[in-house]
Design a protein that fits this description.
The structure is a homodimer. Chain A has about 350 residues and is α/β, with parallel strands linked by helices. Chain A folds into three domains: about 180 residues, Rossmann fold, CATH 3.40.50.10680; about 100 residues, Helicase, Ruva Protein, domain 3; about 40 residues, no CATH class. Chain A has a seven-stranded parallel beta sheet with strand order 5-2-1-9-10-13-14, with helices on both faces. Chain A has a three-stranded antiparallel beta sheet with strand order 7-6-8. A two-stranded antiparallel sheet of chain A has the order 3-4. In chain A, helix 7 packs parallel to helix 9. Chains A and B meet through helix 3 and helix 4 of A and helix 3 and helix 4 of B.
């Protein structure tokens, strides 16, 4: 009997592979249903990271840290609450590009601390730990890698000799609002990246591995693409359960559609599951939660060897978010009880 | 007849060696009395510069730029008007030192632009020019050197083996408010610093060289200490006229007293003049303005070979500030008419 099934008796080690906004919200729910003695390790996507104005910005790590540390702007769902924007306005006055990325003044302090520590020789893991000492997120937040990895998006460009151009993911996401076709996704540095200390151990020692409804291409994709991570996921004794980021044929955050289409992944609850694949067949998933309205997707997912279950996926408030986290743990527990493939 | 005397007929080239607050105010007055075609070059002290939170901060250059560009906080006399302090509060929340130096959010943008350009390989001169493209200070602002020079103050420290300790000038000035004895002044890097491009030319080509009432030890001292600058001052055809930073036996900005005492310079209008010395005797000054209340100092200064004149030195408002600038130019013109030593 696994630790998941024996939940009454022992602390549970939960490992979560997370992007930014969706992952952070899911984690809020998870912490609300987890026992105090449970240990949650979050492996955060760092392929969204970007150097801006000489500062290292880690949007996903910060969104997780701010959300769980009660510092997030609840409306925007990124950046700091009660933020001011003086420096941003001044940078624009100086004519410094880019102007499309909003760094608030409070947020700037985080990037200043991070950059100063990185330049002093600390790893991103160590820096993240130091920042979390303040935020006390209630999880062990670990970047997927201490090495620089950056997602670039290939878009059409008539002015280019090749007819295409690669831009940083943030430029595609924030400036272009993911509004034009994706011709390819280049995760620069991924092949040579090493998992950050603790990443493989967290997966190997986990009782449950969860994939929140984060973007499968630019959030989950880079994490599992770090050499060694997919193998660790395939080898772990823990069940691996994911939550569909697609509800009713549309991305929960609408802008993800282009990314899926660009890689030929159907924008559907089953499409993403099949893209990730079944552990029993060399993929990554044991279980997959789809929304109640996507009941038809269940058969296709099950046929691919992934145990699918229909539950409400919308994380509208703390109650529904907690319920989704509980449903994820429940599916994992059921899968653990029957044994997971290794 | 020099160009100073021929002021009606030709544009004048004025070269000013300046520290921060006092120099900036003097420059405001100078610009208000200068003809539109006059060219003012300001050689700014950079020995106050400090790296904070990974950013290069140049207090004197910024004070000049903000003051002449109408962006200064008029009350504080440093930093930006209508400033916000969100990042500073956050840095303190992170427990990052130092907490005693106030970097406002708008001000931060300046340091971000500067640091990013420096790290991209631009010189401080080039960066200063780029920043001034926004501020349009009405002068050509040139750092004394593109090389790193930093003033450190030697203070007593019972915990040290030597009984002394060197701290950055900003720590002495801002954190300790210059409240303890100065045992020595170490201008680190000065001996190996090279004058920034334009510095020696500006002195050599000047019709007038002015020393505003800036701190003689930590503002004027480092500028004239850059190898080649003192020689250029001694060689220029222009009269060199200074304004006493001491009025009635006290520093205009009171905190300078300790610095003078620490180097054995009497805190008096004549003490500073004698410290700088007469050009005719291997020093730097031809003329020296002392306040009306320091009339007795005139004799000692004159005896040292420096032409001293009593005028009101307090720069209380635009009118008195302009009058002081005019008095400086007038003394220079009179000295030029009789010829200056070379």
């Amino acid at each position: 009997m696994s630790a998941v099934a024996a939940r009454e008796n022992a602390a549970m080690r939960i490992c979560v592979l997370s992007g930014g906004v969706g992952g952070a919200r899911f984690l809020q729910g998870l912490l609300s249903v987890a026992a105090p003695e449970d240990e949650v390790t979050v492996i955060g996507n760092t392929a969204d990271d970007i150097w801006l104005f000489g500062l290292k910005v880690c949007p996903d790590l910060d969104t997780i840290m701010y959300t769980l540390g009660d510092g997030i702007d609840a409306e925007r769902r990124w950046g700091r609450s009660d933020e001011t924007w003086s420096a941003k306005a001044e940078l624009a006055e100086y004519g410094v590009e880019p102007t499309w990325f909003g760094l608030g003044d409070k947020d700037l302090a985080t990037h200043l601390v991070r950059t100063q520590m990185l330049q002093a020789g600390y790893t991103l893991s160590a820096v993240t730990r130091a920042l979390c000492a303040r935020w006390q997120p209630g999880v062990d937040l670990v970047p997927m890698s201490d090495d620089r990895v950056e997602t670039h998006i290939l878009i059409d460009d008539d002015d280019s000799d090749t007819g295409q151009r690669a831009i940083h993911f943030q430029e595609y996401w924030v400036r272009l609002r993911a509004g034009i076709p994706v011709r390819g996704v280049l995760v620069v540095g991924l092949e040579d990246a090493r998992p950050a200390p603790g990443v493989l151990d967290a997966i190997g020692a986990a009782d449950v591995v969860l994939l929140p409804p984060s973007n499968p291409i630019v959030s989950i994709g880079p994490i599992v693409g770090v050499p060694g991570v997919a193998a660790a996921l395939r080898a772990t004794a823990a069940p691996v359960v994911g939550v569909s980021p697609i509800i009713g044929g549309a991305a929960v955050r609408g802008m993800a559609d282009q990314l899926l289409l660009g890689l030929g992944v159907p924008v559907s609850a089953s499409g993403v599951a099949l893209h990730l694949g079944a552990r029993s067949r060399g993929g990554l998933l044991d279980g997959w939660l789809v929304d109640d309205q996507d009941t038809p997707a269940r058969d296709a997912v099950s046929a691919a060897g992934i145990h699918a279950r229909c539950v409400p996926l919308w994380m509208n408030d703390p109650t529904t978010t907690a319920a989704l986290a509980q449903d994820s743990l429940a599916l994992a527990a059921d899968l653990a009880a029957v044994g997971t493939p290794r």
